[in-house]
Amino acid sequence: MIGFKEETLHFDVVIVGGGMTGLCAAIASARHGAKTALVQDRPVLGGNASSEIRMHICGATANMKKPELSEGGIVHELMLSNKRVNDSYNFSIWDAVLFQAAKNEKNLTLLLNTTMHAAACQDGEITCIECYQMSTEKRLLIHGKIFADCTGNGTLGAFVGVKSRTGSEGKAEFNEPHAPEQPNQDRMGNTLLFKAANVGHPIKFIPPVDAMHFTEEQLRYRKHSADVPKEVLAKASENEIWMLFDGYCQDYGYWWIEIGGESADIISEYEDIRDQLVRAVYGVWDHIKNGGNHGAENYELVWVGMLPGVRESRRLEGDYMLNENDVLGNRIFDDAVAYGVDLLHGADDAVLLVDERVQHGLDSLAVGGHGDGSGLDGFLAGKLGLIGEQTVDADALAQTLRQQLARGGVEQLILQGRRTCVDDQNIHKYTPFSEGACIAPEFPIK
Q1: Residue 160 and which of 144, 177, 279, 386 are 20 to 30 A apart at CA?
Q2: Pairing of strands 125-133, 138-149
Q3: Which pTM value belongs to this model?
Q4: Residues with Cβ < 8 Å from 160, sequence gap 6 or more?
Q5: Cβ atoms within 10 A of the Cβ of 170, count?
Q6: Neighbours of 164 (CB within 10 A)
Q7: What angle separates helix 91-103 from helix 20-31, to the nearest 10 degrees?
Q8: Using one digit for the tens of pLDDT, what is the confidence trace for 375-388?
Q9: Partner residues linked to 128 by β-bridges
């Protein structure tokens, strides 16, 4: 029997997850001289912004409600590169722009089609991850000094036992004014988008799957037609009217085709949710085409996603958890090291200083969010001798930050944490190559 080809790799910084955060983190790390690996389980980069899902980057402009604003730093650099060669925003070309940006960095090794399936710790630090690269049938053991979890699901953190949460905390925990009275598992769901094109003549549509059936009454507050019936407008609240006129995109798809699952674990339901979303997407289009006059007679589907975009799953705990009061009060932390803005939703001009305690949980683990510089933390932590330390060389850090801000802005910088939150016995263990055994988690993720 032919076994897997095996390879052992060593890096300064290992970033798991090739979405926008992971890519920007990898570029930042590589540009600062760190030997960096970017591990991505898909064939393209960009995550939710890739051609597989097609959620465009629109946070700063709030869907062009604030056209004078823009993302900064490496995200802005990538968007400018895309504008030069891709004025019509073809997502396939955007994929190529991101791919080339990674390939341009001499210190960056890009590992596409590579899935992390195990991790190991020693003395409270992640030492290596084990991956399988589907395209080459390689089993990769990847060692690093710093690991960044940019998976979106906090998968690396979960593998090594970092505590996590889902849903919403109750009001009593942080005294947040808009929190629910009791904790709950309410959450945003997953979405499939589609693209339709006007072909200039009438075209029929027959659903290729067992599509869901929707009525005009069920979709009355979801804009799916050029015109909204007057009787609907007369009864709609202010928020419902906003919904009606915010999401009309016959040629792009609808963010509101969203399913959140039925259990507390949206990750384990991903495949089932995908199946439901496929039926829902084709059901909505069937209604648009065959359920009345919606102005789509000449429109034809040219693309329908099969990889749902994820909004919310688990979030890893750190020494300090940023809460609503910090945001509303514009709290300034004494040990803040950078600032961050929400690149996904556009947080209504909210700019937050990022506390170096906010996200960690493991001496060698960084956590990426909606930022474009989260990989810089790993390099700086090593460069300034901060790994596992409780002190920060403030002068050196400030100097580096000034250099970065002058070049376009570090949007998120999170240094390594102070204490270990990992049970060394409660991890996914890897089997040494010499044993040649398949890897399987020895315990269920909690």
Answers
A1: 386
A2: antiparallel
A3: 0.79
A4: 119, 121, 126, 362, 365, 422, 427, 428
A5: 13
A6: 17
A7: 30
A8: 344 444 444 343 33
A9: 120, 143
